[in-house]
What we know:
With 383 residues, this protein is an alpha+beta fold. It folds into four domains: 114 residues, no CATH class; 77 residues, no CATH class; 100 residues, Tetrahydropterin Synthase, Chain A (2-Layer Sandwich); 78 residues, no CATH class. The chain contains twelve helices and 18 strands. The strands form seven sheets. The chain has a three-stranded antiparallel sheet, with no helix packed on it. Strands 8-7-10 form a three-stranded antiparallel sheet, with no helix packed on it. It has a three-stranded antiparallel sheet with strand order 13-12-15. A hairpin with a 2-residue loop joins strand 7 and strand 8. Helix 10 packs across helix 11. The longest helix is centred in the C-terminal third of the chain and has 43 residues. The N and C termini lie far apart (158 Å). 13% of the residues are buried.
Amino acid sequence: MQILQEERGLLYRRDEYKRLLMPGKYFIPPGCRVERYCIDEPFNPDNHNINGLLEQDKAIAENLDVIEVPDGRLLLVHENGNLIGAFLGDNRKVCYWKFSRSVGSERTRKFTLVDLNDAESAKNLDRAVLTHPLVTRLNIVLRCDVKSWEKGLLFIDDQFIHLLESGVHFFWDVDINSEGQGRIEIVKTDLRQQQIDISGQEIMTADKTPLRVNFFCRYRVIDIMKSILSIKDLREQFYTALQIVLREYLGSLTFDALMEKRRSIATEMSETLREVCAGFGLEFIGAGIKDIILPGEIREIMNQVLIAEKKAQANVVMRREETASTRSLLNTAKLMEENTVLARLKEMEYIERIALNIKEISLSGKFQVFDELRTLFTPKSGG
């Protein structure tokens, strides 16, 4: 039989190891067998202890690269710059055949041991290695993407380590429990403008008027250490603080004052809201009242008040117009009194208006009617 240049063989007689076969042609006696191994693959002899073979035959030890991989270590094997193997440590020995001069003159292997106990040492490796299928199948790499509008907090074994800026981060996480959770936890926070709404907040004014208010507040996280590390359930506690501020301020106003100042309430509360936000590591951006909802009885009373106000305004307008009309009549009467021609023209104007509305005229009195009409439309002497 022939052992090829990229092969090595182990000769056995009745399952007892005899010797190493290098590339070449061999005569295999009856009762013997040969196990072939490719030098491009790790050496894992079938049904044999590698330590026993290394002690038994020095030729095998001389032709192998033997790397011990302790617990908590990862062995990366590169050939000509390409990753060809990744082995998780469990006090094992990883063996590769050395290249012969005829085969490996242009081929090189590199063995790298990585300490997995240092979770952040993954950042020292190329991303192509960390995302390689040979590494990802081991389920020891934790990837975290921090967006450009986010920041992250890194916790290892429940201890805060440092902040994570935007970008892609990789960590070694080998201690995975039955629930799929490791010893590394990353908490991300959104740094963009956010809004919290308080809807249907029931408030009693200073004059005991019940009403409901819809309120909003816009903010931004600026101190992530305070808002995340020092405060549990940030949004819930912030919501409660806003409720208290809103109740205290609106509860100090009467209903009429509230309705008059409803557009400027947010401005007057801004300083207090800014202090509240600062206590949570937030930056106050703005706030406002969206709606004031009145109970049915109050709303009916308000409608009646509005109707009464509009009626009063209408009466004022009517009286003003009547006064102007009366004043105009008075001025006309004075002019007519001082000028008889004007009075006669006004009289003729009204006669014309009356005539326009007359469809038929019945006359009686024979020839005297014309005399009477002539008398009616003829100005008197001295007039």
